[in-house]
Structure formats: structure tokens, C-alpha cells
Amino acid sequence: MYKIDRESAFKCRAWPFEEARKVLSRLGGKVPEKGHVLFETGYGPSGLPHIGTFGEVCRTSMVRYAFTCLSDIPTKIVCFSDDMDGLRKVPENVPNKEMLAQHMGIPLSRVPDPFGKYESFAAHNNARLREFLDSFGFDYEFISSTERYKSGQTDEGMLKMLHKHEEVRNIVLPLLGEDRKKTYSPFLPVSPKTGRVLQVAILETHPERGTVVFEDEDGTKAEVPVTGGHCKAQWRPDWAMHWYTLDTDYEMAGEDLQSSRDIACKILKVLGKTPPEGFHYKLFLDEKGEKISKSKGNGLTMEEWLRYAPNESLAYYMYLRPSSGKKLYFDIIPKAVDEYLTYVEKIPQQMAEPDKLLDNPALYIHEGREVKPPPVNFALLLNLASAANAHDKETMWGFIRRYAPGVTPEGNDLLDRLVVYAVRYYEDFVRPSNSYRLPDARERAALEDLMRRLEVLPATADSEALQTEVFTAGKENGYAKEDLRQWFQAIYEVLIGQPQGPRFGTFIALYGRDETLALIRDALGGKFAKAA
Residue 130: is its pLDDT beyond 60? Predict the structure, then answer.
């Protein structure tokens, strides 16, 4: 673990520390009565975990880490599942839709699992959620809404809300249409006869005996307690009620929930507690700058990102400017991976410079744990895959072992994963988009000169010596200092079929001098341009 200087941490302007200081100020620097600081994240189990779920837990973990650098007060993250919610619609991506359709309105924790693996649909999705979070190594405690309602842990909050029924109701009413205003109540009773969560008018409230009266589905009046899971709260009051009973100190939310969170904060104040700290993060955009929508199918899903890059790179993208909208599409993946790797490489040098270390995203991604940087970056691996036409990681590792003796897949987990991702990305995106061209006269002369220079170098020449010869070949063949960018672009367009790449000297060292000579000969002979 990296040791963080506390004095520097208090001065750090990185957003996780800005958020963590808000929490510490809220507490007055003292340990809360519950004995720990509670960071909350929420999840609706009517569907499978998605990129928003990852982002919220990931960013909250970063704030929690920053808080631990500021204070010794114990901390806890809870992942809250609203599995008491009634089934509102049948998802498109599940089997047994007809069976699910027969359970509309039933709490998700009592709807049969359409996959036939768990005791309920909620249990299935909750298990997937926990599996999902565990795969990233998040440290959290899972909380089920149903369990809290049934066990009586929400009773105090529900009774408090019953006593404040009209005040809570009046906070929400301005958001509603005229018809909905007539029937709205913060309580959703569970029908004693059908078991459905009902969105009906509350005809009477009886705070003295802790009950509400409503018209059941068969037209008869029913009176039920608001405690013990006989009622649940509407989602905005529910949000406030769980903050109340858990004594939540921090929860962030997406910009689409800003008004709802504001309402929940007002309700919590009516219940007698201070709202938790938090901020509203921006939602992701597609390549055209439009909001990502499941129905539209635009943008990039979390599963797609994680097919081509490690979760650390997605966490890095989550770290960047959370209060600004960011585009999420395939072309940004390699850049995000290499930016993340650059920050990993910088950490050892920054240990003596606390201010720079605390501005390093990798510190928050790994929560202070040491990470071994790989000897090659993602762009280099992509160019290697392209030059070698590699379709498997064994081919890639043959070059890597020669370039970095002693480096093995077993001792370099991150590099081994990057190799797999690079092959996939090459197969699906690079190879189909390769666009080779023949060199013009100046480019041909420079490439032939580079060949002569490489032929007289020893096969063991390092990347710096190789890069010097690449520079020299360009300069000696008409590329002025300000034109060298054109020379490097020509190298990659002619040899790799791409407009850019990493340092070519490093590429030669990885790919091999003799292999690079063969690559240049083939390109000058028109092999690639003809094939394209």
C-alpha cells in the first residue's frame, strides 16, 4: 500500500477528496453514533447490472478511499437492492415471459425466477449483482429491501413517515399530474389477498395504531400496518426512508435523478435528519453526443467495453470528470487503456511528490495498492497483432518473451489480460479497418534508408538505438524537424495500415529487427496495398 501524506490529502483538489472532505465536515470530524461512515449505492433488481451500476459503486469506492486517507473513522459501503418493488414490466432479455406476465405487481422477491435457478427473480438478479461486484474486487455489504421491510428494520422510518403523511405527500405533489395527485400517497400497501404492491389512494391514516386504509383489488376496504413489510414506500419517500433508517452519510446519483434526489432530501428533513452528501454525475453519450439509450441501442455497453479492455481502464474512464458528459464508444477504448497504464507507470516516481501522486487516477482505481506496470502498452500490442496477423495470445507472447526475457503470463496478470484484449480488438476493429497504401518517392527512399540502417545494427539493439535510426532515416530523406510527424504517419500507413501508432523504435524492439525488415520489404513490394 502506498502511504498517503494526510496534510497533502487535505489540500488535494481531486474530486474524490473534495467529496470526502464534505463527508468529514458533515460528521464534524467525529465518529458517528453507528460507529462508521456509511456510503450507499442503489440498484433496481428488475434487470441485470449495467455500466451505471459499475460506475456508481466504482466512484463511491474512490470517495471512500479518499476519506480513509483523511480520517481513521471506520467506513462501510452498502449496495442496496430495491427488491421489494413490484414487477412493473416483463424484461425483453429473459425466458418464460408468459410466466412473468402473470406476476405483474408482485414484489420482485416473490416473483419466480424465469431462469429456474433461484427462489425468486430478485434473488437471481441480486446474485448476478453480487457476482458482478465481486469480480471487480469491490468491498461492500449487500442489503435487501425486502429483508429490511420484513425484519422490521424500516419500521421506525415508516411510522415516522405515517405521522408526517401529509407533509411528505405535499413535497411530492408538485411533480405529479392532476390525476395522479388525487390518489398519491407515500405508501404502497401490499394487498392481503393478492400479494401485489398496490398504487392506490390511501383512504385513511391512523398514526396512533400505525395503519393505513385503502380499497383492495376486489373493491373491499382493507386496513394494514405500515410496518413489517405490509407496505412499502413510493420510491422517492423510500429513498429518504432508507437514508433515515441506515443513517446514510453519502450517496451520489445520476443527473437524471437530480430532482428526485432533491425531493428525497426534503422528505428526510421532514423526518428529522440531515440529507447525505453526494453529487450528480453526468450520463454517458454516444459518438454523436446523444444520451445512451437501451431502446436505441446506441453507445457502448459495459459488456462490450470489458470484452476489449480490462475493468481498470473502465474505472479510469469513470474517474475522469464525473460531472461532465463523456462519449462512450469503441474508438476511445485503446486511448483509455494506455492513459490508465501511463498513470500506473508514474506512481513510483510520484511517491516523493505527494501532490502529483494524489492527482493520479490509478491511486484511486487501486485504492493505494501497488500495481506492476506491463513492459508494453496497449497501442504497441495492437500494432504487434496487426504486423504479426496474430489470432491468439500464444503468438503475441512469443514476441513479448523475446523482447522482455523473464516476463511470463503467470507473473504478469495485467499484461496477460491486455494481450487477450488486444487480439480481440485487432480482430474486430483494427483488421477490418486497415487501409494500406503504397509509399510515395520520398517515403520509399526513407524506408529503404531505414532498412539499410537496421541491417547494420545488432539484432539486440535497444528501442532507443532503433528510434534514433528511425529519426535519422527521416531527416536524411527530406523530413525537416517540423515534418517528422508526417514521416511517422507514413510508416504506420504503409507498414501497418493505420494512421498512427506508438514509438516505432519500441515496436521494432518488440516485433524484432529481422521481422521488421521483412515487413518493410513486403510493404515496398506492394504486398499489403495489393491485398487491401
Answer: yes
List, for residues 387-421, the tens digit of each pLDDT value: 999 999 999 999 999 999 999 999 999 999 999 99
Is the pTM value of this prediction over 0.70? Answer: yes
Whether 441-531 and 6-169+233-281 are alike in CATH topology: the answer is: no
Give the number of other Cβ atoms within 10 Å of residue 191's Cβ. 19
pLDDT in tens, 194-228: 999 999 999 999 999 999 999 999 999 999 999 99
213/221 Cα distance (integer angstroms): 7
In the block, residue with C-alpha cell 430478485: 122
Q: What is the C-alpha separation between 422 and 309, in angstroms, rounded?
A: 8
| CATH no. for 441-531 | 1.10.10
CATH homologous superfamily of domain 6-169+233-281?
Answer: HUPs (3.40.50.620)
**Chain centre to alpha carbon of residue 18:** 20
Residue spans of the domains in the chain: they are 6-169+233-281, 378-433, 441-531
Q: Measured on CA atoms in the order 119, 122, 128, 129, is the torsion positive or negative?
A: negative
- Measured distance CA(109)–CA(164) in Å, rounded: 28
Q: Return left, alpha or beta for 480; rule: phi > 0 is left, psi -120 to 50 is alpha, else beta.
A: beta
Q: In whole angstroms, give the CA distance from residue 131 to residue 134.
A: 5
DSSP per-residue letters across 289-343: SPBP-TTTT-S--HHHHHHHS-HHHHHHHHHS-TTS--B--GGGHHHHHHHHHHH
End-to-end CA distance of the chain: 50
